Amino acid sequence: AGDNLELKNFIKALGSHPVYIRSLSEFNLRGSPYSLLAGRITHSSFRNGARQLRRLLPRSAKLLFDPGIGAAHTYPSNMRMVLSAWDPESFDTIGGTLFATPGSSLTRVYRSYYQALRKVSRERSFIISELSAPLADHARTRDFFQTAGSAYPKLTRINLFAAPLNRLVEARLGSYGFTQSGAKESFLKTLIQ
Fold first, then answer.
1. The model's pTM
2. Cα dist. 166→29, 169, 174 in Å?
3. Between 20 and 30 A from 133 (CA), which of 98, 121, 169, 188?
4. Are 106 and 100 in contact (CB under 8 A)?
C-alpha cells in the first residue's frame, strides 16, 4: 500500500466486515491489465502483489483467486498458467469468472476448472465471481444451477452478472442475462429462493 491513501482508507473501513476482494481478476486473459498471458506482469510480481495485499487486509476480508474459467477450460496451456499462479499463502477462496458462449455447457466448463483447482487446494471454498450466460441457453443454465450444490460441494456462492454485456458481444452472440424478454421474474427464481 505504501503511500496509497485510498487503499489505506479502504482497508480501515473494512474493519471486521466480511468481504470478498477480487484482486488481479482475470489475470489469464489477454485483455486484463494484470495479464500474465499478455506479459503485462510476471508470475513473481503477481505473487508478490497478492502476498502484499493479503498482509494488509484484515482476516475478515477474503482474497479471491479469480481467473477467467472458460479460457482455463479451453486451452491446456492457460490452465497450466492458472495452476502455476495459485498461491495458498495469498488467496483464501478460489473464484473465477464464468462466461458461457451459446451452446457451451456450463457444467462441463466449470467441472474441469473445479477438478483442476481442487487438486492444488483441497480445503479452500469456491465462488463463481461472475456468471454470465446466453438467454437462449436458459435450460442449460437452469440445469447447471440445479446440480451445482451436489456436483461441487466446495462451491459456496454464485454471483450473477445480470447487466447487459457490451453491444459488440451481444450483436455476435445474442442476448445475455437471466430474465427472458417481457418476463417479470428471472427463470432462476424458483431455484435460488
1. 0.88
2. 17, 6, 11
3. 121
4. yes
**Under a CB-based contact definition with an 8 Å cutoff, are residues 79 and 111 in contact?**
no
Q: What is the pLDDT of residues 58-91, one digit of tens each?
A: 888 899 999 999 999 999 999 999 999 999 999 9
3-state secondary structure of 39: coil
Asked if 48 and 90 touch (Cβ cutoff 8 Å), the reply is no
Cell of 143: 440445469
H, E, C per residue of 98-151: EECCCCCCHHHHHHHHHHHHHHHCCCCEEEEEEEECEHHHHHHHHHHHHHHHHH
For residue 72, the one-letter residue type is A
- Collapsing DSSP states into helix, strand and coil, what is residue 13? helix
Return the ∠ at Cα 172 (arms to 106 and 82), rounded to 5°: 45
Dig out the grid coordinates for 28 from the structure. 489469464
